[in-house]
Amino acid sequence: MTSRPLAATATDTRPAAISWGQRQDLIRVVWKLALPVILTNLLQSLVNAIDVFMVGRLGPIAIAAVGMGSAIRMLVLVMLISVAAGAMSLIAQAKGARDPERMSFVTRQAISSGVLLSLVLAVAGLFLARPLMALVNSGGEPEAVDLGAAYLRILFLGTPFLVLNIVFNRLMQGAGDTVTPLILTGSLNVLNVGLNYLLMFGAGPIPALGVAGAALGTVIARGLGVAIVFVIIYSGRNEVKIRPGSYRPDWQMYKDIFAIGIPSGVQGLFRNGSRLLVLGIITSTEVGTYGAAALAIGFQVEALVFMPGLALNVAATSLVGQSLGSWQTDEARLRGNTAIGIGLVVMIVLALPVIIFAPAIIRLFDPSSHPVLLATGTAYFHINTVVLPLSALAMVANGALRGAGDSLPGLYGTMISRALIAVSLAWVLAFPVGMGSVGVWIALAVGVVLESIYMMWRWRSDTWLKVALGKTEIYRTHLRHLPAAKQQQYLREVRAPLMAQADTREFVETDGVVYTSAEREVRIAFSASAWEVDGAI
Question: Parallel, antiparallel, or unpaired: how do β-strands 512-516 and 521-526 relate?
Fold first, then answer.
């Protein structure tokens, strides 16, 4: 059996030039996905701030307990979020492949893997809540440990609800629906705040539970959210639909979900861990604790500036994943490049006011205008805000690569550039070189630059296309047996042109592949080294 001769096409995967009108349409598509994500993140930040405000009425010990408990919870959630990150990439590709059965399968497996992992961590958390609080609160008020442990135990019991909320949001966003997560988040946050207030301070027959009430209100709200989403996805009215099928673990799918998601989770651990190390270095310089305050202010401001970048990260994952689901590699690259370009422009616009008004921003956070904090905080912004636009390159490229299922570069970039090089350079510049706090700020900027260079180099390569292909059923069943040149020829001359037609679907069978549309059916039979086409391409 030999492959049937087909028209030769270029091997270059770089997208062809497009008109300005087409580019405008693509920009609108990216923003249509990104804007609801920005609003969703803002709502979540707002409810977190309101929670801290309400807890503040219980006193400083309560604030400390919730703060430490939240930090511990985030370390756990980082690992659980890995399920959501992997599922988002896979459902985006299934959506692009126009395969509702695959989308349903990914959804069921994301739910079952998230529940199983969260149950394990919930049980562990119940036993470890108090020891972890004692470790974090070393030398602090014992009351904070008691309050924090009670707060954490309730949150750990509700871990499955918290995780499924995140998983459902990412599944919908991956399928291209970012509006429903926005509406759900807004509604649940209003409910969350109301329940927290009611349970923290009591009303009528409801006793005042204090800090524990804040945790219980969060768990109840998220539990109701999970119930609502199940109704939505079983109703068939959303892009994400659950069709008849089993929730029994499929280990290959679990492997695919975690292969994409775990590097994203570990990346978050390295990012947060490197910040803690930098915090220890800056407080040992000439600015002492004021350096930690400057860093805290810097991170708060950057968190707001980063929101569009994080939203574009999500949009890039969805759009690139959908393009690769139908193996439109030119379109995937073009969509990724557009999201990255928008991120760069937006971050430049947002960074300029921070650079110009840096002293005023510091005074906003510190009305006393302490001279040391003012000077070191201004220096931080003048050095690090300059490279913030480059952070957008790394951030959005990371999302685009995740759309292809290629999440290891994000981990490597953070681990090497931010955690290893930046932290080591911060110590060297601060102490042996004698630059003090300025050396720390320069080191952080260098880490951002290096990470951005690496992530853009990875995006500009074709490695992510190989990663995406390796996770497809057609590759695992047939293409992996072909020589590399034959694989590329098949993708270029058969799969890509057929799947470019909006109503074509691909069915992988044990003896070949069938492409069906309203107008025709094309069958492909594979041998050990070639294929044969039955039908017109």
Answer: antiparallel
**Same domain for 60 and 167?**
yes
State the Cα–Cα distance between residues 373 and 226, nearest whole angstrom: 44
Instruction: Single out the residue in 423, 447, 469 at which a domain terminates.
Output: 469
pLDDT greater than 60 at residue 3:
no
**Dihedral of the CA atoms 287, 293, 297, 303 (nearest 10)?**
110
What's the pTM?
0.85
Counted domains in the chain: 3
pLDDT at 6: 36
- For residue 368, give both structure tokens: 């006393």
State how far the Cα of 179 lies from the Cα of 15, in Å rounded to an integer: 29
Query: 318-358: per-residue pLDDT in tens?
Result: 999 999 999 999 999 999 999 999 999 999 999 999 999 99
User: C-alpha angle with apex 496: 502 to 311, nearest 5 degrees?
Assistant: 70
pLDDT tens readout for residues 456-500: 999 999 899 999 999 899 999 999 989 989 999 999 999 999 999
- Expressed as residue numbers, the domain containing 326 is 289-469
Burial of 430 from C-beta contacts in 10 A (0-12 / 13-18 / 19+): buried
Which strand ranges, in their side-by-side order, compose the sheet holding 512-516?
505-509, 512-516, 521-526, 531-534
486 is a domain residue: yes
CA–CA dist 105, 499 (Å, integer): 21
Residue in the block written with tokens 């969703």: 40
Same-domain pairing of 457 and 484: no
Same domain for 120 and 140? yes
Together in a domain, 310 and 420: yes
Q: For residues 206 and 198, give the distance between their C-alpha atoms in angstroms, rounded to a whole number.
A: 8
| CA torsion through residues 123, 127, 130, 135, sign | negative
Query: Quick one: 184 and 89 in the same domain?
Result: yes
Residue type, 249: P
Mean pLDDT of 34-49: 81
Is 499 found in the same domain as 354?
no
Measure the CA dihedral 393/399/400/403, to 10°.
Answer: 170
